[in-house]
């Protein structure tokens, strides 16, 4: 039907050339015969007329035949078009320019329920009183196709109308309208709209900044929270497409760009500069929007301010790698830096570095004497001084409680490392004033300079520790640089330490006694108890060799108690059996560690009680350095010892540093001149004057004086002249076992006038 109303395109009918040739032959036949031209006869007009008729008939026959075939073909095509239109499942209709429905396909009739051909489309189909909005488009009836969406009255659904011009048989233009049901699409769009409205509502009321970007990264939406997060308003982001990128910290910009493309995952922590110039940390969560065609429709970004969390993370990371008290790098960071330096030395031929351990001397003494608060403050100030003494590329780390480590990098010669270490040593030794307490601190250093590339970090640390250990053996404030032979010394010390631990429990220690005499009449007034070690393989070992090791390892606590207890028990036994021993005084040395132990007074009280030793017959000798390191705390502890009735003597006077104001506060009984002064006093007048000054100082303070190391009669004479009360030394007697000391008491072993002792028991030195 539609093919009958709107003509189909076809070929125009034509005469066949063979038919025309046949008619022409018929007309020529009468005039030719056997190749000759024949003249017309009297019937010629009739024949001409007949020929014309035959030509006309032939032409008409051909035309009729051709038209018939053409019509049949058009009919077939029309039927084909009708079949196609009928089979089209979409709604289709045609209307005239004035809006009259000219044609409807079956689907359209079925859709609205009746055939409205001939009726105005705007009224029959849409219930309108005037032409449909899209029909007023004049261009639609010329040569354009239009697309519209509308909600149909005859059916509760949405359609999409595609309108196109179609030429009628009479030459006029009608409109072909094809309708497609888009209800599902509209439903999805509605759900999307509702979802977007809901999301927009949430976005506009959350602290997170929501950003929507198009497929090409173009800005589409920014939530009001942008003001809170960046300091910029939504209008700023609307007016400047790439405002966010311009705020990103330049060091994070490449990461930001990679994040937007999905190359860095769906979450990113990055920094921006807010409108006020402040740097903040943000976190962005990335969500890609996928359309129905499975193609990306853009990105949705949720951006939050995580500055507080990030600062906390940075703080925690810093705390994990730094010492809380001093702020220096801790052991973890130090180990990592050392490992990096070792690896760098393997890669770079001319890269040199040094490693040094520093151990703060007598820090425990300060903690025990003044309390950990003072000790901690001292440690803080020392750490600050050490940090200032190195270069910016160097590292100072706190490796343990009182041990620090120096990593000195990019050195051109070993001397530079030594200079830096000496600068640190000098800084440490500057007096500290903490809450009114003046502290004089020192530190021992063990260094490894320009280690060979084959040394790993563990070996490097081991060598530095060996050097440090030897520095501590040498005394306070010493520096030792590692050299290969130290490995042998370290093994020797380790063996000695193991033997020392065994000796404490194996009763290898014994006590010897050195007489102390009155210098003016050589009368015996007491003994000094001195510990000795009888090693099963090495024989008797000098105290100078094992006492420092015992101090360092803490074994001095057990050893010191053993000496005090054993000597008190021996003296008590002498007192019970010999009347001559009743007035004798027993002198026992207290080490620095012993003096600082919190239960020292109670421990000594217990020993006196269990051994039966009278307190007034016990004299405790404490070095000048030990007392002065903890002057204020020492006053209290010494007073408590004096309350027990014990005598107190300052040992090795002149080798340390003493404050006269503190010396006057100490409850002292005796002062012992160090043997180094006694040995030199008869060599020069100056040395004699030093001894004289010490004796006068003691007398002015009401103290009696003991000189140690008297080895010649001339020395005794000088000391007598200077009014020194007591003396001890090889001139009178070497340290002797208890049985020989007992004989000394009853007068069987007195020194000869020439000063050559009658009794030489063992060839050992005195106390260290």
Automatic annotation (TrEMBL):
InterPro entries: Biofilm_reg_signaling, EAL_dom, EAL_sf, GGDEF_dom, Nucleotide_cyclase, PAC, PAS, PAS-assoc_C
Annotated ranges, domain GGDEF: 351-484
Record keyword Protein biosynthesis present: no
Keyword set includes Zinc-finger: no
Stored PROSITE patterns: EAL, GGDEF, PAC
Matching SMART domains: EAL (SM00052), GGDEF (SM00267), PAC (SM00086)
Domain of life: Bacteria
Segments passing through the bilayer: 45-64
Keywords for the protein's UniProt record, in alphabetical order: Membrane, Transmembrane, Transmembrane helix
Domain EAL, chain residue ranges per copy: 493-749
Domain PAC: 266-318
Annotated Pfam families: EAL, GGDEF, PAS_3
PANTHER family: BIOFILM ARCHITECTURE MAINTENANCE PROTEIN MBAA (PTHR44757:SF2), DIGUANYLATE CYCLASE DGCP (PTHR44757)
Name used for this protein in its record: Diguanylate cyclase/phosphodiesterase with PAS/PAC sensor(S)
């Amino acid at each position: 039907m539609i093919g009958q109303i709107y003509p189909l395109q076809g070929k125009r009918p034509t005469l066949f050339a063979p038919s025309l040739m046949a008619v022409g032959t018929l007309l020529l036949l009468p005039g030719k015969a056997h190749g000759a031209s024949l003249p017309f006869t009297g019937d010629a007009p009739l024949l001409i007329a007949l020929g014309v008729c035959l030509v006309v008939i032939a032409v008409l026959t051909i035309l009729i035949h051709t038209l018939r075939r053409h019509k049949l073909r058009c009919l077939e095509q029309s039927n084909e078009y009708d079949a196609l239109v009928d089979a089209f499942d979409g709604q289709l209709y045609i209307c005239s320019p004035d809006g009259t429905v000219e044609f409807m396909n079956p689907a359209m009739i079925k859709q609205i329920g009746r055939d409205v051909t001939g009726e105005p489309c705007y009224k029959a189909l849409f219930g309108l009183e005037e032409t449909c909005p899209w029909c007023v488009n004049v261009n639609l009836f010329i040569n354009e196709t239009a697309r519209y969406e509308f909600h149909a009255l005859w059916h509760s659904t949405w359609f999409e109308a595609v309108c196109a011009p179609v030429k009628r048989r009479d030459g006029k233009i009608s409109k072909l309208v094809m309708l497609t049901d888009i209800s599902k699409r509209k439903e999805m769009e509605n759900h999307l709209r509702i979802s977007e409205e809901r999301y927009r509502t949430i976005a506009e009321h959350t602290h997170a900044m929501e950003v929507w970007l198009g497929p090409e990264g173009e800005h589409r939406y920014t939530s009001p929270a942008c003001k809170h997060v960046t300091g910029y308003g939504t209008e700023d982001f609307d007016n400047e497409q790439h405002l966010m990128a311009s705020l990103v910290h330049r060091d994070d910009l490449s990461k930001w760009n990679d994040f937007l493309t999905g190359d860095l995952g769906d979450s990113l922590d990055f920094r921006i500069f807010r409108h006020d110039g402040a740097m903040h940390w943000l976190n962005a969560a990335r969500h890609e929007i996928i359309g129905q065609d499975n193609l990306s429709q853009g990105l949705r970004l949720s951006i939050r301010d995580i500055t507080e969390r990030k600062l906390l993370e940075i703080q925690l990371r810093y705390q994990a790698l730094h010492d809380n008290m001093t702020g220096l790098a801790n052991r973890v960071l130090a180990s990592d830096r050392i490992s990096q330096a070792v690896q760098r030395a393997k890669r770079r031929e001319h890269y040199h570095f040094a490693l040094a351990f520093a151990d703060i001397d007598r820090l425990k003494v300060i903690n025990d004497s003044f309390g950990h608060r003072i000790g901690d403050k001292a440690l803080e100030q020392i750490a600050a001084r050490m940090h200032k003494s190195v270069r910016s590329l160097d590292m100072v780390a706190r490796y343990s409680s009182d041990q620090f480590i120096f990593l000195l990098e990019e050195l051109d010669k070993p001397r530079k490392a030594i200079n830096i270490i000496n600068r640190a040593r000098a800084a440490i030794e500057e007096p500290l004033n903490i809450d009114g307490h003046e502290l004089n601190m020192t530190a021992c250093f063990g260094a490894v300079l320009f280690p060979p590339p084959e040394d790993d970090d563990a070996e490097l640390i081991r060598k530095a520790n060996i050097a440090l250990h030897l520095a501590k053996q040498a005394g306070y404030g010493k520096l030792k640089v590692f050299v290969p032979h130290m490995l042998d010394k370290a093994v020797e010390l380790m063996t000695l330490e193991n033997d020392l631990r065994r000796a404490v429990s194996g009763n290898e220690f014994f006590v010897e006694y050195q007489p102390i005499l009155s210098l003016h009449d050589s009368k015996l007034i007491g003994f000094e108890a001195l510990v000795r070690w009888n090693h099963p393989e090495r024989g008797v070992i000098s105290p100078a060799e094992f006492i420092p090791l015992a101090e360092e390892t803490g074994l001095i606590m057990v050893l010191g108690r053993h000496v005090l207890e054993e000597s008190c028990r021996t003296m008590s036994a002498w007192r019970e059996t010999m009347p001559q021993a009743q007035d004798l005084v027993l002198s026992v040395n207290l080490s620095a560690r012993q003096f600082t132990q919190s239960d020292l007074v109670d421990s000594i009280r217990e020993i006196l009680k269990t051994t039966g030793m009278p307190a007034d017959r016990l004299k405790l000798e404490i070095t000048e350095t030990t007392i002065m390191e903890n002057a204020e705390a020492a006053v209290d502890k010494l007073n408590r010892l004096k309350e027990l009735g014990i005598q107190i003597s300052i040992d090795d006077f002149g080798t340390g540093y003493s404050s006269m104001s503190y010396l006057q506060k100490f409850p002292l009984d005796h002062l012992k001149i160090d043997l180094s002064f006694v040995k030199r006093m008869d060599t020069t007048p100056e040395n004699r004057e030093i001894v004289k000054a010490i004796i006068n100082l003691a007398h002015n303070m009401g103290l009696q004086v003991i000189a140690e190391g008297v080895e010649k009669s001339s020395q005794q004479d000088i000391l007598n002249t200077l009014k020194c009360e007591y003396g001890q030394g090889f001139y009178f007697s070497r340290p002797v076992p208890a049985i020989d000391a007992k004989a000394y008491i009853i007068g069987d072993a007195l020194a000869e006038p020439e000063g050559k002792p009658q009794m030489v028991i063992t060839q050992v030195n005195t106390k260290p």
